[in-house]
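Problem: given the chain below (138 residues), write out its structure.
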Amino acid sequence: MIELHEKYGTITDAYSLGDSPELAEELLALVISGRKTASCDALALLEKENIPLPKVGDIYVILDSADQPAAVIETIDVFLCRFDEVDVEFARQEGEGDLSYDYWRDGHKAYFERNGVFAPDMKLVCERYRLLEVLDRV
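Solution.
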């Protein structure tokens, strides 16, 4: 990661996407392909884990399911939105499934239920990002 610090300056954090190894790999592949350019998480989960809200310009390393650095992204937009107010465009930018709003809603509802925080009016931290680099993995 030293090379990444030299190349990008401050790395805000490193994390994997999703809540299982399989989901982490699936979502990582979507980021690397360029299909996934947005993500969201429950504000309540970030607050519970004391994770700071992302900011425009933040640089993150996305980890694979083995916690190995796999990609570098830069946050280009952040906003708060209720779950039941997410629009079709943002759902499509998440890049999952058939890119439909229904797929997004059903998948994210299940994810937030698994994590014990789902409510239709829950606050989400919505983030758009751009892929800066795909890292070589050993």
